[in-house]
């Protein structure tokens, strides 16, 4: 039995839950929010972060890596292609989400949604909003080019990881541009039960 550790309110845990829905894959899920769970989690992942996936004796962390592993494990080459270039096109957008996009939204999200007291620098928040909107504009241009999904005509892992990010962008209380291709893409994602349950479920 596969076991997933991490609160379902975590954007990175929800990536794995959505993928499990796409794979029709049963996961034993432990929110890891009880006394002593932080130490137990750190014993599995030295960063102390979720999600953590346990598959027999194997332990994996980093949400995009966990998603790649599960898609490959289930031989879902539609979600993560075998052909090198097709796979690279999916992975470049997954990596972009983890590096460029995540780096842009953190100050704005932490200030406007989490209300973290150490993130209330107005200048930093405005710079974060500007960078976040600019990068979402790049995603909009990519979706306008493909006319369908992030990496091309077909739904892939890139749509899962970026679908969660797009939901966070739309739900953060800030000014944002109208991005028609992103809106049309999200409408396509909304036809998927996994997105409705874990990506567009009202949790930023």
TrEMBL record:
Q: Where is the GST C-terminal domain?
A: 83-204
Q: Which SUPFAM superfamilies match?
A: GST C-terminal domain-like (SSF47616), Thioredoxin-like (SSF52833)
Looking up Pfam families in the UniProt record yields: GST_C_2, GST_N_3
Against Gene3D superfamilies, the record matches this protein to:
1.20.1050.10, Glutaredoxin
**What InterPro entries does the entry give?**
Glutathione-S-Trfase_C-like (IPR010987), Glutathione-S-Trfase_C_sf (IPR036282), Glutathione_S-Trfase (IPR040079), Glutathione_S-Trfase_N (IPR004045), Thioredoxin-like_sf (IPR036249)
Q: What superkingdom does the record give?
A: Bacteria
Which part of the chain is the GST N-terminal domain? 1-78
Do you know which PANTHER family this protein is assigned to?
A: DISULFIDE-BOND OXIDOREDUCTASE YFCG, GLUTATHIONE S-TRANSFERASE-RELATED
Name-wise, this protein is Glutathione S-transferase
The species this protein was found in: Pseudoxanthomonas winnipegensis
The beginning of the lineage is: Bacteria, Pseudomonadati, Pseudomonadota, Gammaproteobacteria, Lysobacterales
């Amino acid at each position: 039995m596969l076991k997933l550790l991490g609160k379902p309110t975590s954007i990175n845990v929800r990536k794995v839950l959505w993928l499990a829905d796409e794979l029709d894959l049963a996961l034993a899920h432990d929110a890891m929010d009880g006394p002593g769970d932080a130490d137990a989690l750190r014993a599995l992942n030295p960063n102390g972060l979720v999600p953590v996936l346990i598959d027999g004796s194997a332990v994996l962390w980093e949400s995009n890596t966990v998603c790649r592993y599960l898609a490959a494990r289930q031989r879902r080459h539609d979600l993560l292609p075998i052909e090198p270039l097709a796979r690279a096109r999916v992975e470049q957008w997954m990596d972009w989400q983890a590096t460029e996009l995540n780096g842009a939204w953190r100050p704005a999200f932490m200030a406007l949604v989490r209300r973290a007291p150490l993130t209330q620098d107005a200048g930093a928040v405005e710079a974060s909003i500007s960078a976040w909107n600019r990068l979402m504009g790049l995603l909009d241009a990519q979706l306008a080019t493909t006319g369908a999904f992030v990496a091309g005509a077909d739904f892939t892992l890139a749509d899962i990881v970026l679908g969660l990010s797009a939901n966070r962008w739309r739900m953060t209380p800030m000014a944002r541009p109208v991005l028609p291709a992103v809106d049309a893409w999200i409408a396509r994602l909304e036809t998927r039960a996994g997105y409705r349950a874990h990506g567009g479920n009202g949790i930023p």
